Known about the structure:
With 605 residues, this protein is an alpha/beta fold. Helices cover 52% and strands 8% of the residues. The protein contains 24 helices and 7 strands. The protein has helices at 24-39, 49-58, 66-90, 108-111, 158-167, 186-199, 214-226, 231-241, 251-266, 269-272, 284-308, 318-334, 339-368, 376-383, 392-409, 421-424, 426-429, 460-476, 479-493, 502-517, 521-527, 539-545, 551-561, 590-602, and strands spanning 2-7, 10-15, 95-103, 121-130, 136-144, 173-178, 209-212. The strands form 2 sheets. Strands 5-4-3-6-7 form a 5-stranded mixed beta sheet. A two-stranded antiparallel ribbon has the order 1-2. The chain is globular.
Amino acid sequence: MRKKLKLDDHEEEVDYSRPSPADPEKExxxxxxxxxxxxxxxxxxIETPSFTDLMRLLNPNFRPTVSILQKEVLEIHQECKEKAxxxxxxxxxxxxxxxxxxxxxxxxxxxxxxxPVLQEDFVCITAHLVDDDWKVRRxxxxxASEVDVVALDDLYVHGFxxxxxxxxxxxxxxxxxLPNEEGFDEETLGGFRRGLxxxxxxxxxxxxxxxYCCADLFRLMVHDVFNDFSGKLLEDLRMxxxxxxxxxxxxxxxxSNLQRAVDMKNEDEFSKDEIYDDYDKPSDEExxxxxxxxxxxxxxxxxxVELLEGGYSTSNVYFYLLAELxxxxxxxxxxxxxxxxxxxxxxxxxxxxxxxDHMFLVLATASVLDPRFKMKYLEFYCSxxxxxxxxxxxxxxxxxxxxLFARYAATDICQKPICSVAAVDSKEDENDDGGEDCDxxxxxxxxEIDGEGEEGDYDDEEDYNEEEEEGEEKYDSDSSEEAERExxxxxxEKPDACKDFAFFQEFLKFEESHREFGESELDAYLxxxxxxxxKDFKALDWWREEGHKYPVLSRVARDILSIPISRxxxxxxxxxxxxxxxxxVVSLEAEVANAMMCSKKWLRL
Length: 605
């Protein structure tokens, strides 16, 4: 099967390199390996009795072995890696690299492992970008068990360095998305970050951001309050409220269950119904803890629902939603009715403010690139002096955005609108499924997060009609029209005397510089009225449509909006512990596990 692959400005016909039909057994092994990679199935499965019986029924002469299948998986990985490498090297935008330490727990994932557990933890390095079709992509570049083989002083950098060097993307990385934990800071990553900046064109590439996962922040803030709950208290609450199995895997479930307990207490249900007489009920001190959790974590949940549920949220929505959370927590602190509540509210705000201060520039810049806000929301926020700021932060953000825009405007490629692959090669792609990939955690999510790219409009009939009308005018025009054209021709041929006027030429240069630097695309964008509020607004769709109007600024927007503020979305974003690896990889050799996790992201390239 052959397919045209669009890599920026050139088109290349590539072959999926299926084995030659002259070797049908090799082709069958390759097809089986691809199925296992795409479906996330452990190659050891072929040794189970049910699979062996199936193969015997389909073809008694086809006898796959684990070693042959693993060899095919490694070959597929190498083949797909070269295609991914070529794409990333040719990609004209910026990308983010994220780091996640994934650890096998002692729950149902361990119980469902086929074969012995060979790997218990992995470091997952993922590339995040928005492609030329304005679709969000997440590709795993490395999925390795490194903790035992990497020196401690290189533990936080090794995975990043290996991915950057292996894919030759030193000049492409604009951001590092890090766990919100100790050790991931300027001290340990500063040298690597500076190395990335030096490898790129310093006159064009902006400094590399270090950003931290918002889902991690929420998890740590929940832990600050939840750690005061004893196992007995939680079991007593489970019995009197009746919420089923007592589990701490997802904090949003605790919010609803503990809020239900508070509501029942406020309605005095435990005294009205004698059925509760036989149960142990929380003491007054314990009820203070429960109410504190329900109020403070309840504020977080209101914001988390908007940020983390319903799919991937681009970076433009985080600023106003996290600002809302900051205001809610401060109001809760003002209304504190106990020392315990006040202490926990202060501690949560302290952790939040540290994150907010570090992330302010990235989040605010992304917010400005949302046409519903532009500078208006940032200026409104600063006017409230929530951070004891009188507008200096707004000026800093605008100054950074102007500097960033100037860097992009200095490159020739940024003068052209981003060219959608679907628009250029729609006929070849109209029957293609697109690039759907799986998430790197236990479940599967769509890698192609945003909507499909729109096909370009080529209105040949309209162009033909215009040419026909011009022809009729040419042959049916009267003498007055011909005379006018002759006069216009003479005027055009007359030399421009102003070319010799030195002072006037100075004015033209002055006006041109004013237009370039004072009335740039950025100024034109900011000076237009903001859009009416629309909760379903999609920033990537808007910038894709406005790319021809803002060719430079749309590239800036694409690279800023592609920065992921949270690694996880939906169910996984509420986890109170580290994510676990898929059950099928922990019983594989490290090289095979890496090949399977990476390749299933690249198979559709």
